[in-house]
């Protein structure tokens, strides 16, 4: 089955740029979606189809996908961005969704 | 406004059964794929199952295949998850989720979740 690998944690100072990676075999050939989950809350979609933003998501959130790595980039990080972030793809061979293990973003 | 409200969670003994429901509103329910996603305490998101818009096609994670059944009633705008032969490892918050507006293979909206605890 398809596996997505994320770093367990990323730390960044306020105002700086955070980059959260999601690794998978030839992930560049798949569409990657990203979710933000704050403690005690349901997840929220922040990026879909590699780089599209849903309405209401700040432009500070962007995504890219190439080769074996997809990246969620958060510019000008704010304290309110502190959360767990999950990447997700659809594995068409198994007809399953696959989530990465999640990355805890800490704002220093 | 899209709303997804789960119900039916609770404490159940190993080997027992539970049926989760998800009441949907604020969108044309019959037009969207729906998913169930779960999250064990302190752990990450795990996809459980999906159903297409008319209920004719379903898919399950290997860990629940043969024990869980996803279904929907488009007349009642309700999604279900019948869970049988429950195990301790099924303990989790179960989220009802609607596919995205731009495609079926990601989640556009999430419910608040319902907690299922499997324990004796």
Structural overview:
The complex is a heterodimer of chains A (108) and B (120). Chain A is mostly beta strands and 108 residues long. Chain A is 0% helix and 45% strand. Chain A has no helices and nine strands. The radius of gyration of chain A is 13 Å and the shape is globular. The model of chain A has no long low-confidence stretch (mean pLDDT 97). Chains A and B meet through strand 3, strand 7 and strand 8 of A and strand 5 and strand 10 of B.
Strand content of chain B: over 45%
Q: Tally of extended strands of chain A?
A: 9
Radius of gyration of chain A equals 13 Å
Note the total helix count of chain A.
0
| Helical amount of chain A | under 10%
Q: How much helical structure, as a percent, in the residues of chain B?
A: under 10%
Along the chain, the helix and strand elements of chain A come as EEEEEEEEE
Radius of gyration of chain B: 13 Å
Report how far the terminal alpha carbons of chain B are from each other.
40 Å
| Residue-averaged pLDDT of chain B | 97
CA-based shape of chain B: globular
Shape of chain A: globular
- Judged by helices, strands and strand pairing, the structural class of chain B is mainly beta
Low-pLDDT regions of chain A: none
Largest interface: A-B, 25 and 23 residues
Main sheet properties of chain A: 6 strands, mixed
SS class of chain A:
mainly beta
* Secondary-structure element series of chain B: EEEEEEEEEEE
Number of helices of chain B: 0
